[in-house]
Specification:
Layout: H1 2-20, H2 26-43, H3 49-70, H4 77-82, H5 85-98, H6 105-132, H7 140-164, H8 169-192, H9 199-219, H10 226-249, H11 254-274
Helix pairs in contact: 2-3, 2-6, 3-5, 5-6, 5-7, 6-7, 7-8, 7-10, 8-9, 8-10, 9-10, 10-11
């Protein structure tokens, strides 16, 4: 009887080890990560309101851990910090913005689905950076464009949430500068993807985030709506970060500069005209 129990236990242990050692390729890990985080996003709406902030924080931690697990192959210390900035920030931004949506599943369910799909695409682009830092691959330009787009989306959602808190003007500036720094840092790092962060990238990221913080401080005195305020700052990020990246890549021709500045001017005029100056 004892021998039989021992054999059954050994068989169960062997099955458990085999189950834990199931070989998943990177794409399967990315899909699993996107599904789990989508479920996590939906769960933030099923708990008590006082617990939602904790759940959002937990979702950000889960996004970091799961993204690191999905992209683990070829990851070093710098990549473990830099490549995970955008997945973590995007998860926190969408989860925080989720609170501002109408309280009905007809709205929240499609947003959750779009989040899961977009997070899958985001991890694919981050995986390209992970591989491109080791060897040249043709998908780098597409991944760079996608990463830049997700950076702008994350910034827009974060700025939207910051403005929704109705903070004093100096807190708005500080919050925007602080939240913009890691987003800018990972974008500038993706240009050369060195194993170590250079001082120049850190300084450039600090300067750009400081400028955005000053713009947020200035825009706080404008009677803007939440969307216009967030759109104005996101457009400023688009111009500042886009031009800086083009300069670092050696592609800052006169035509490129005027294209970025032209978009910035157009958005500024739209923001000015959309502002209700009469209250």
């Amino acid at each position: 009887m004892i021998i039989r129990i021992c054999l059954e236990y050994l068989e169960f242990g062997t099955w458990k080890i085999e189950f834990m050692n199931i070989n998943l390729n990177k794409r399967q890990k990315i899909i699993i990560t996107a599904i789990l985080l989508t479920i996590g996003l939906l769960s933030t709406q099923l708990v008590d309101f006082n617990l939602r902030f904790r759940f959002i924080t937990g979702l950000g931690v889960a996004a970091y851990i799961l993204s690191l697990w999905a992209l683990w192959e070829g990851i070093n210390l710098t990549k473990a910090l830099i490549l995970m900035i955008l997945p973590t920030s995007y998860s926190l931004a969408v989860a925080s913005f989720y609170f501002l949506l109408p309280v009905r599943w007809l709205t929240r369910a499609p947003v959750a689905f779009i989040f899961g799909l977009s997070f899958y695409l985001l991890l694919l682009s981050q995986n390209v950076f992970n591989v491109a830092s080791i060897r040249t691959i043709p998908l780098y330009r597409a991944a760079s464009t996608a990463s830049f787009l997700f950076t702008l989306l994350s910034a827009f959602f974060i700025y939207n949430v910051i403005y929704a808190f109705n903070l004093l003007f100096f807190w708005n500036g500080l919050a925007v500068a602080t939240s913009s720094f890691p987003l800018i840092l990972q974008s500038l790092w993706s240009i050369e993807m060195r194993d170590r962060l250079s001082a120049s990238i850190i300084i450039q990221s600090f300067i750009l985030s400081l400028v955005l913080g000053e713009l947020a401080l200035s825009f706080s005195f404008w009677p803007m709506s939440n969307v216009i305020w967030s759109l104005s700052l996101s457009s400023a990020l688009y111009v500042l970060l886009g031009l800086t990246m083009q300069v670092l890549r050696g592609r800052a021709t006169g035509r490129v500069v005027w294209e970025y500045l032209g978009i910035g001017v157009v958005v500024f005029l739209i923001s000015f005209l959309a502002t209700s100056w009469t209250g």
